[in-house]
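From the pipeline queue, job 12 of 40. The input is one protein chain; the requested action is below.

Action: predict structure.
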Amino acid sequence: MRIRPARTDEAAALTELVLRSKAHWGYSAEFLEACRAELTIRPDDIHRHRVVVAEDADSAVVGVASLEGAAPEGSLGLCFVEPAAIGRGVGRALYFHVTSAAREFGFARLTIEADPNAEPFYRRMGARLVGRTASGSLAGRELPLLEVRLPPRTEGWTQAWTAGRRAVHLGNVAGFQSQFGPVSPQAAHYSCLAAFLSPHPAVLILPAAVPPDWTDLTGRPLGWGPVEVYDGLTEPPGRTDGPTARATRSVPEAQGDTLTRAVLSRPALLRRLRSLDLPLLPWGRTPAVAELTGVPLDPEALRYESKRASHELFTRLAPAHPELRVPEQWQPATRREAARLLRRRARAGLTTVVKTEHGAGGSGTRVIRDHGRGGLPRLRRPPLPRGPVLLEEFVAGETEPRDVTFDGLVDADGCVHVAGVAVMDVLGTAYRGATVGPGVVPPALAEAVARFGAAVGERIAASGHRGWFDVDFVTGSDGRPAPTEINLRMTGPSVAFMVKARLDETRGGDHLVRSVDHVPLGARLPGPALSAFLRETTARCAGIDAVLLPSIPTAAFAPAPYLGVVLAAHTRERLDAAEALVRAAARDTGRVFTT
C-alpha cells in the first residue's frame, strides 16, 4: 500500500469512493443523496484540505483521507475506504498517516465527526469520545464527536536513538549474555523482544524461527508496515516441523555471539542490510556486533554490567544524591567466607541478598532470611549460586511502587538522553514486566531516580558505553530509592518505552503501556491455534479501548507454555482490565482438554 497526495483531477472519482464507502453501512439512497453535498470533494479542496489517497499494489485508489484546519487545532475531515478493501488495514494506514502529518505540521488536537458505525474504529485507534455534534447533512441527526491529542514533536531520546528513522533490530540476547557466563535456555524466546529495539523496525534478525504472521499482528496497531524478518539463523539445518515447535527447541550456544556471526557469514544478507543504510540496533554490544557495525567496542564499555562495579559507582555518586540510599555490599573472597557471613547475619535477624556478579532478570539472585534458631534451612544444595558471589543488605519496605527503573541512552557523541522511569513487576527476585506512562511513578520519586540515573549515564559514557542502559532501584520503608544494578543493554522496560513512543506518535494522547513477559497458557498452542487465539484476544482488548501486542510468541508451544505481551490504554482501569482479560483468556486455552 502507498499513500500519496491526491490530484485535483481525482476529485470527482474520490467523491464517488466516499459515497460508496458510506453506503457500506446500509444507508438508503435517499440518505446518501442528502449527504452528497457535504461529502463532495471539489478540486480546490484537494490542497486546501491536504487530501491524500491510499493505493494498492495495482495502483488502484482504495481510500481517501484529509487533514483540515490550521495548527494547533484541526480535524480529520475524511477517512473513507473502498468497500472491497475494508478489513485490509487501509483505514488504519490512512489514520496513522494523517495523525503523523498533523504532528509534523504542529497540530496539538484533531477532532473527528464520525459516522456512528465508524466510532468503534476511531476509539480503537486511540481517539476519545468527547460529546455529540449536529450532522451537517440531516437536521436533527447527531454524530459522535471524538478528539485526538497529539504530543509535540521533540528532539528527545527517540531522535537521539534513531534520528527518527526505521532501524535494523538484532536479537542477540544469548550473544550478549555469553560474555558474562552461561546462557539462559529462555534466551531464544526473550530475543523476540528485539522487535521493540526502536519504535519502528524495518528489519528483524532472530536466532529462532517465529510464527509467520507475528510481525503483522504486532505491527498493525503500531503502523509499522512491512518488516523484513530473518529468523532461525542459529537453528540446526534441516528442521521440517513448525516454527513454534522449532523455537522451543532452539537452545542458544553457550559461547560467543552466534547470531551476529551468522549474519557475518551470509554475504547476501550483509549486502541487503548495508544497502538499506539504516541504524543497526543490537540487544547488547559484543565484539561480533562491533565487527558488523564497524563501531569499536571499548574494553571498558561494559564494565558496569558487573554488580560489583556498579555498586562501587553508586557509592561514589551517593554524596551528591542524599535523597537516595546505597545498600551496603560485601564481596567475600571465598564461598566459605560468604557462608560464614550469611550465618552471622541470620543469627542477628538480618536479611541478606545473595547475587552473582552478572545476571539478567533476577537470575542468580536470592533473598536469604532468618528462619529462627540461627539456622539457614533454605541454604540447601547448591547453597550458593555458582561462581563468585556478592552479599548485599536487604532494603526492607512496603512502600509502593517498590521496584522502579530508570531507562536512558548514550548517543554516539557520549551525550546522555533520558527515556523515563518505569515501575517494574518483580515477584521475589524475578522480573516479570514493567509499566510506563502518566502517573505511574510519583513525581518526587521519578525526579530522584531520573537525576541519579542521568548521573550514572554520565559515568558510563566516560567509560566508553554507547547505547541503551538502565538502572534498577528498590524503595525502602523511608520512601528513599536504593540503586541495585546497571544493565548496559536493552531491557524489558525498554520495550514499554518504545511502544509508548510509537503509539503516542501515531495515535496521539499519552498512553499507559505495560510489558508482561510471562502469561501462562492453559495449553500448548501450535502455530494456527496461536494465531487464532491472538487475533480473537486482540479484538476483545480493542473492544475495551486497549491495545494488545504479542511480544513473545515462541514459548506458546513450550512444555510449560506461556506468552509475552505488551498492553496499552489511555487509563489505568482499561490497562488493568486488558491484563485481566488476557490472563483469563490464556488460562482458558486449556479448558478444551478438561471439559
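Job complete. The mean pLDDT is 89.
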